[in-house]
Design goal:
9 helices; mainly alpha
């Protein structure tokens, strides 16, 4: 597997970078991963293809960085003093419209990941692993505060339960996850599994 580039070779203003990332995500929603090309990104953003490759190295890295940039804020900024409060604060960072848009993006990418090791690696390194690290920090704090037993086997499956809730609602009910569903799911499934 190719290693994802971690340094950039030229400067782009934060405003221009945000504009580029939004255009990439718009294209991804419109045409899907397979049909999205660096030529299309260059045309949409009035950039040269050479600049895109110099800045991001590959289409998978560009998409992973655009998705990472799309995250409203980092979970490491959340510390309400309780795990329930932290998880609910995490949910409050996104509204129903954003959740729906993100779910559409992720459905398309989950399909593309299966045939593309470079995309899978980029998403894991730039999006999934940082989110897992932040979630694990929230869980460790809950253990340290005595809210969750350190040997609770559900600690290893919180992310699986969260992803499962997203996937199952779409599959079973043909509806995307919204804040109301997610709040009820967390309070009825995840927190009780953790002993809260």
């Amino acid at each position: 597997m190719a290693e994802v580039a971690t340094t950039r070779r030229s400067r782009i203003t934060p405003e221009r970078e945000a504009e580029l990332y939004e255009a990439v995500l718009d294209l991804l929603r419109e045409v899907g991963y397979e049909a999205l090309t660096m030529d299309a990104v260059a045309a949409r953003t009035r950039s040269s293809k050479a600049t895109l490759y110099r800045q991001w190295g590959s289409k998978p890295e560009l998409i992973a960085r655009a998705l990472r940039h799309n995250k409203p804020t980092s979970l490491d900024e959340i510390d309400t003093g309780s795990l329930r409060g932290d998880i609910h604060a995490m949910m409050a960072r996104s509204d129903d419209c954003q959740m729906d848009r993100d779910a559409a993006l992720m459905r398309g990418l989950f399909h593309a990941i299966h045939g593309n090791a470079e995309l899978h690696q980029a998403l894991r390194q730039l999006l999934i692993e940082p989110e897992l690290d932040h979630l694990n920090t929230l869980l460790r704090r809950a253990v340290d505060r005595g809210e969750v037993a350190a040997d609770n086997p559900a600690l290893d499956f919180v992310i699986h339960m969260l992803v499962g809730g997203f996937v199952a609602r779409d599959l079973i009910e043909d509806r995307t996850v919204d804040r109301e569903f997610l709040t009820a799911y967390i309070d009825a499934v995840i927190l009780p599994a953790l002993g809260i």
